[in-house]
Amino acid sequence: MNKILVTRQIPEKFKARLEQYAEVEIWDHHLTPMPREQFLEAAKDKTALLVTLSEQIDETLFHAAPHLKIVANMAVGYDNIDLAAAERHEVAISNTPHVLTETTAELGFALMLATSRRIVEAEKYVQEGKWESWGPYLLAGKDIYRSKVGIFGMGEIGRAFARRLRGFNADILYHNRSRNAKAESELGAFYTSFETLIQESDFIISTAPSTPETQNVFNHEAFKKMRKDAIFINIRRGDLVVEEDLVDAIENGEIAGAGLDVVRDEPIRMDHPLLKFPNVIVTPHIGSASVLTRDQMIQTCVLNIEDVFNDRTARNQVMHKA
Predict the structure, then answer these.
(1) Catalytic: which of 254, 285, 294, 306?
(2) Residue ranges of the domains in the chain?
(3) Is 285 a catalytic residue?
């Protein structure tokens, strides 16, 4: 008998579909992750796990759950999974590519608009009763139209973000580990060095994955090279940013502001210094948070689990690269 553990609440329609194949156990908390020891205990007799980035899938987990056939990760990234260990234990790993690209790009664009036009500051200004008169430079912000936007990481999300810039007549710069001919021909994007990107861009958008090469790339030296009116947006991974250096850059006026959907340690603690700045917007990792996209992510996980239970290769199987 197959048994499935789902580590977040999911709609009943998906639970019912999984129950056609297996006994299903669901962690009954919407926002709170399963405590580690409870997760390991619950996984012991399971043949499939449907998890999020909050769960660490490692050697300890595979030893605790010897019957596992598949771990379906409800995310594009899989930083939380030891792929080598999964291969040793012959456990399939799947992710949810493609389905959240456009939604995440939309959130990034919303952060760029909100930060550049100081929307959160303006709303608070009204709510606090400070709006007494009109002034020519009252909460004056920064135009995106005809600006220069630098995209760090021209993968699917980077390209989706770039498509949205075309209506703003913006110049699109990008830096990637390799050139993207499609982005250049279809979107008019210009490939540049990382140094040129951060020095010349009005807006710097980080959409790159976390790798040894990208971790901590946005550090003191990078922020010092940015324009003083530059705005930094991060919608992919928090560990690309040295947060202490970002705090210093904001505090010292080295950049104009930041919009962050991800931080290094989530959830952000309420005494984090980034939260004290009016020109920094932090959202709770909601890049893919539309009802349609979240439904598609869960559906993708369900389909991958069904594939494995039917003795097929998971359609979105992630392979370990030695």
Answers:
(1) 285
(2) 3-99+291-309, 101-282
(3) yes
The one catalytic residue in 8, 159, 237, 294 is 237
- Active-site entry in 19, 41, 195, 266: 266
The pLDDT value given to residue 237: 95
- Residue range 3-99+291-309 in CATH 3.40.50.720: yes
The CATH number assigned to the domain with range 101-282 reads 3.40.50.720
Q: What confidence tens digit (pLDDT) does each residue in 296-317 have?
A: 999 999 999 999 999 999 999 9
Q: SS3 letters for the chain?
A: CCEEEECCCCCHHHHHHHCCCCEEEECCCCCCCCCHHHHHHHHCCCCEEEECCCCCECHHHHHHCCCCCEEEECCCCCCCECHHHHHHCCCEEECCCCCCHHHHHHHHHHHHHHHHCCHHHHHHHHHCCCCCCCCCCCCCCCCCCCCEEEEECCCHHHHHHHHHHHHHCCEEEEECCCCCHHHHHHHCCEECCHHHHHHHCCEEEECCCCCCCCCCCECHHHHHHCCCCCEEEECCCHHHECHHHHHHHHHCCCCCEEEECCCCCCCCCCCCHHHHCCCEEECCCCCCCCHHHHHHHHHHHHHHHHHHHCCCCCCCECCCCC
Q: What is the pLDDT of residues 221-262, one digit of tens each?
A: 999 999 999 999 999 999 999 999 999 999 999 999 999 999
Report the predicted TM-score, pTM, of the whole model to 2 decimal places: 0.93
